[in-house]
Design a protein that fits this description.
The complex is a heterodimer of chains A (about 140) and B (about 525).
Chain A (H helix, E strand, L loop, with lengths): L1 H10 L4 H19 E3 L3 H9 L5 E6 L4 H16 L5 E6 L4 H6 L7 E6 L2 E7 L4 H13 L1
Chain B lengths: L30 E6 L3 H12 L4 E4 L15 H6 L1 H20 L14 H25 L3 E3 L2 E6 L2 E5 L5 E11 L3 E3 L8 H4 L1 E2 H4 L9 E4 L3 H12 L4 E5 L9 H14 L2 E4 L1 E8 L5 E7 L4 E7 L1 E4 L3 E3 L6 H4 L23 E3 L11 H16 L13 E3 L5 E5 L2 H8 L4 E7 L3 H5 L8 E7 L6 E7 L3 H13 L4 H6 L9 H4 L17
Parallel strand pairs in B: 1-2, 1-6, 2-3, 6-17, 8-15, 9-10, 9-15, 10-11
Antiparallel strand pairs in B: 4-5, 5-6, 7-16, 12-13, 13-14, 18-19, 19-22, 20-21, 21-22
The chains are: A alpha/beta (about 140), B alpha/beta (about 525).
């Protein structure tokens, strides 16, 4: 609980510079742990639906230009949260049925999932401020 | 309650267990319409039927090519036909444009090089976005999608296995077969299957095909050989007989003549006898030259077969339900309403006998069929005067009858052929050879002089012919064409100015201004 409050304060720090430098110290290793590519349907069940932590699911495609910008941007912000939120990447060409099941029609589509439910969603590219707010809402709620 | 045979329940999301009765009573089918084949015709039919609020399902499955190539939803046109073909044709045209650019003042260092993998990735990515688009459209129109290879068990029941091996059974009141065709392999050439590729594979190659031999005289052969030459590859076309059989032969010769001057090598009146793999991994091809009665050989990196397409009916189990096919071609026989020999079973697209193998006709036929089945329409598909274009390096577009067909139907005394050799304005400064830029209009000679056919070789032939196809559909006449004012400066305007007849014997070369 104390840890979460500390993070809360971290997130509300106005000086983004400090946030970034704080994040970067832990960033790389946390990033590696907190972002993963979904392998198949059962992998999605295990690591997203049944995840104890909230997960942002990034539906993307090789042929999608905006996805190539949004992906790394989102990944960077997620890694700064040091494991509080995980990020699952789903290539819709490899996992078309899964994407259709979650009603994805355009890419990039990002879902916020908590306890197996979709609690938030956006389609298209977003800037860092918008993404931070999105993530903040997911952890906070 | 399950029928006597007990339809097996399928797993996962494929909710496809239908009720099959034993003898006697009409079965209660799960869908109003089942379409087998998710290509141009199939998808158009399914989506149109769904608009009428009907319960529709589409089954699509791609059997990997012998070389292992496979692809997503959308059929031949989207994945291994029209779309990737036109994009690669464009890549080749841009190469020529870069050469022309110097004359127009651009500083581009020659020679310009092409990287296959960059083009291929761009094309393949676009195709994948179309596969996705089709999935989303089916979802939005509430059409159920099954990625299974279906075969008939009775006239209203189709079953198949999912990739995971689960059996799925689908029943429908009406079934439309739209499984299209696949490239043929020559059966009498040793090594053909093992070492050769087809158009199914060409567009999905990750690495350049290198020095390529394309065997065949079809538009598939010429279009592919054309763009391979255009991107700088050593390309040879081997033809047993005439090019573009079925098309106007004068125009066909002009197409191949241009390709030769463009750099494509031609082995005419030759047919392959065997293909062997060398230690260097190159392919050694041996062939007979029918004119010289000799045997010749050469090595290539890639051998592509473009010797025709066969209907994809083998695994459908058509005999079980009695759907009649043409004994020679194997295609499904249909009447003017796209109906097969079995009630409630229809067919559209490349799979049907006697129809053009074109996307727009398949789409139109599919839509009209859905409208007749569910929309109280009685409109039949009109297959007359369908325009088309061969996207060779110098494009050939046409609508209506070839000169030979017109002569055969009406007699040479009753037709008038107006023709012209012209030079596109853009070729002048670029110092490009326009020897094969030509057009002709075949008209009836008497009374209103109705236009029977229009043939055009030149840049953007497809764009040029499309508009004139409307005129021909409306029964345009030669006097009406002469009253039509041309747009200047264009190549298309020359059509409105055609006045030299073949009959006159005069030189048909026309100049611009």
């Amino acid at each position: 609980m104390a840890q979460r409050l500390a993070l809360h304060r971290l997130l509300s720090l106005p000086a983004r510079g400090s946030l970034v430098s704080q994040g970067r110290a832990f960033g790389t290793s946390a990033g590696r742990r907190s972002t993963f590519n979904v392998q198949d349907g059962s992998d999605f069940q295990d690591r997203v639906v049944n995840s104890p932590k909230p997960v942002v699911v990034d539906f993307h495609a090789q042929w999608c230009g905006p996805c190539k910008i949004l992906g790394p941007r989102l990944e960077k912000l997620v890694s700064k949260l040091e494991g509080k939120v995980l990020m699952a990447k789903v290539d819709i060409d490899d996992h078309t049925d899964l994407a259709i099941e979650y009603e994805v029609s355009a890419v990039p589509t990002v879902l916020a999932m908590k306890n197996g439910d979709v609690v938030d969603k956006f389609v298209g590219i977003k800037d860092e401020d918008q993404l931070e707010a999105f993530l903040k809402k997911l952890i906070g709620a | 309650a399950l029928g006597a045979e007990g339809a097996p329940r399928s797993g996962g999301g494929a909710a496809g267990w239908g009720l099959r009765s034993g003898a006697g009573a009409a079965p209660e089918n799960e869908y109003d319409l089942l379409v087998i084949g998710g290509g141009s015709g199939g998808l158009a039919c399914a989506k149109e039927a769904a608009q009428f609020g009907r319960k529709v399902a589409v089954m699509d499955y791609v059997e990997p090519s012998p070389q292992g190539t496979s692809w997503g939803l959308g059929g031949t046109c989207v994945n291994v036909g029209c779309i990737p073909k036109k994009l690669m044709h464009q890549a080749a045209l841009l190469g020529s444009a870069l050469k022309d650019a110097q004359h127009y003042g651009w500083n581009i260092s020659q020679p310009v090089h092409h990287t296959w993998s960059v083009m291929a990735q761009g094309v393949q990515n676009y195709v994948k976005s179309l596969n996705w688009g089709h999935r989303v459209q089916l979802q939005e129109k509430k059409v159920k999608y099954f990625n299974i290879k279906g075969s008939f068990s009775d006239p209203h029941t189709v079953c198949g296995l999912t990739k995971a091996g689960k059996e799925t059974v689908v029943t429908a009141d009406n079934i439309v077969i739209a499984t299209g065709g696949r490239p043929k392999y020559p059966m009498d050439v040793a090594g053909a299957l093992e070492y050769g590729i087809t158009s199914d594979d060409l567009f999905w190659l990750k690495e350049s095909p290198g020095k390529t031999l394309v065997v065949g005289a079809s538009y598939v052969s010429l279009e592919c050989a054309g763009f391979l030459t255009g991107i700088g590859l050593d390309t040879t076309v081997m033809m047993r007989s005439v090019p573009l059989r079925g098309f106007d032969q004068q125009m066909a010769s002009l197409v191949t003549e241009h390709m030769e001057s463009y750099g494509t090598k031609f082995l005419k009146r030759c047919f392959p006898t065997k293909v062997e793999k060398l230690k260097s991994n190159r392919l050694q091809v041996t062939w007979k030259n029918a004119d010289l009665d000799t045997e010749e050989t050469d090595s290539f990196d890639t051998v592509m077969w473009a010797v025709g397409r066969a209907p994809d009916t083998k695994t459908l189990n058509l005999e079980t339900v009695g759907v009649k096919t043409n004994s020679e071609t194997g295609k499904i026989i249909v009447d003017a309403s796209e109906a097969t020999s079995v009630p409630h079973i229809y067919a559209v697209g490349d799979i049907t006998e006697g129809r053009p193998e074109l996307t727009p006709t398949a789409i139109a036929a599919g839509k009209l069929l859905a409208q007749r089945l569910f929309g109280q329409s009685s409109e039949l598909m009109d297959y007359d005067n369908v325009p088309t274009t061969v996207f060779a390096p110098l494009e050939y577009g046409c609508v209506g009858l070839s000169e030979e067909a017109a002569v055969q139907r009406y007699g040479s005394d009753n037709i008038e052929v107006y023709h012209a050799f012209y030079k596109p304005l853009e070729f002048t400064v670029a110092e490009r050879d326009a020897t094969q830029c030509y057009m002709k209009m075949v008209c009836l000679r008497e009374r209103e002089q109705r236009i029977l056919g229009l043939h055009f070789i030149g840049p953007n032939a497809g764009e040029v012919i499309q508009g004139f196809a409307l005129g021909i559909k409306c029964g345009a006449t030669y006097p009406q064409m002469m009253k039509t004012v041309g747009i200047h400066p264009t190549c298309a305007e020359e059509v409105t100015k055609l006045h030299i007849t073949k009959r006159s014997g005069l030189d048909a070369t026309v100049t611009g201004c």
